[in-house]
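tl;dr need the bound structure. longer version: we got a ligand (coenzyme A) that a collaborator sent over and nobodys looked at where it sits. i said id run it. heres the input, straight from their email, havent touched it
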Amino acid sequence: MTRHATITGVGSYLPPRLVPNAWFEDKVDTTDAWIRERTGIRARHFVEDGVLTSDLAVEAARRALATAGIEAEQLDLIVCATVTGDTPFPATAVWVQRKLGLSCPAFDVNAACAGFSYALASASAMVEAGIADTVLLLGAEVFSRILDFTDRSTCVLFGDGAGAAIVRASERPGIEGTVLGADGSAAEVLIMPGGGSREPASPATVAAGRHRIFMPNGREVFKRAVTEMASACRQVLEKNGHAPEDVDVLIPHQANERIMRAVAERLRIPEERAVLDVAEVGNTSAASIPIALDRAWRAGRIRPGDLVLFTSFGAGLTWGATSMRWTMPAPEEVAG
Ligand SMILES: CC(C)(COP(=O)(O)OP(=O)(O)OC[C@H]1O[C@@H](n2cnc3c(N)ncnc32)[C@H](O)[C@@H]1OP(=O)(O)O)[C@@H](O)C(=O)NCCC(=O)NCCS
């Protein structure tokens, strides 16, 4: 019998501190109106001092385990998509494993804001191959620690948070397939240049702000995001025998409302079928899709049998799209 993989639990966690756009007005030359109009963002959550990426991930994981109706001990793999982990190594997935008191394999995926697509493809392929049965899939970020609060073109965009999904082996098909892409020729358009073997951490790199996010051409990132996400969506739909009009719920990476609207428009998917959840969350990078997924499911927007399409785009450049037939019951039928 063919082994399939599906999502059986979802959860998310946003740290309590909500930072409105106005907070940035006395830090950089910006306004609440500009940020709302150009991005759709009104506020984002930032962690307090001492809170780590793995802390957010563990909260999201506990919520996902509850909706899946399973115990942490049943997990046999943890995959975490992040670029703002607790430590450059070991992996944040390992810190999460320790906090959950487990001993299963654990690793991170670095594909920036496209991390969830790459991690979902890894998790579902490992389930289909019989390497794992029950995977904790995480997207978790503390972007506030790598923002440059003197750079108005990036500091207003990002937020902190974590999302989780439980990916399990199933007899019924759930996750149908994923299309992934990358273009290293554009690696410098969105980058944290310092801290690796290219520019090891030193007093000079710290003084020059090289350990912070750097996006010299936001407009180019915007254009490529729309093109690549729309194209990946078309490819994954075609591969799995669907047309864009079959899509019940589109969950794009939550970078900017204008990007998400443009992707839906290119695919001719009516906007009301797209989950736009950036307003009070901001761009949480690899965490954005699982956070939006959890919040949309809890709001009753995703029903059993729905065709759900995820698509992401990020630094690398990297991108991806996954189609799946939703198999989780409605929230009112789930204890967690
Ligand atoms: C960053 C972004 C919101 C800017 O919006 P935009 O409409 O493209 O604006 P532009 O980049 O054309 O910049 C227009 C002007 O606004 C300015 N600007 C940038 N950030 C600003 C801010 N926070 N407040 C006020 N003005 C700002 C720019 O400096 C520029 O000024 P100039 O014309 O004097 O040079 C948009 O390009 C974007 O969302 N890009 C993708 C970013 C992203 O999502 N990255 C992560 C991908 S995972």
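gonna send this back to them w/ a short note. The mean pLDDT is 97.
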